[in-house]
Amino acid sequence: LFFRLLGDRSPFTQQNWQVDSLDRDEENSRIQHLAEIANFLGITPSVDTEAIQGRGSYDERVEFLRLIVDLVEASCYADNPEWSVDEQLAKDVQLVDSIAEKQAQIFSEECKLFPADVQIQS
């Protein structure tokens, strides 16, 4: 992912060890920018250039990649033209209403699921 974003100047391509200072500054600028994006998206808790370059513990790197995968999966659903916030809200409201209706039936006098002397807090 970051190789594609950074291109040939990615810190992951160690082919050319003799990079002049201008290229190094541009590379650092890109890494800093990616770290700021990762922080903004909630992938990292702070602007962490070390995490962007794949440094850190194994667990930190796994968590970093898991969060990226979650964002990619979320973006797949966001691109679904058939999905609508209004339709999803209507489905959610219908589900909550259905649950409330079932709860009312269970706790009703007619159901007699619980003896009259049992106090039920809802």
Automatic annotation (TrEMBL):
This is Nuclear matrix protein 1. GO terms for molecular function: microtubule minus-end binding. It holds the Pfam family Plant_NMP1. The gene is NMP1. Signal peptide: none annotated.
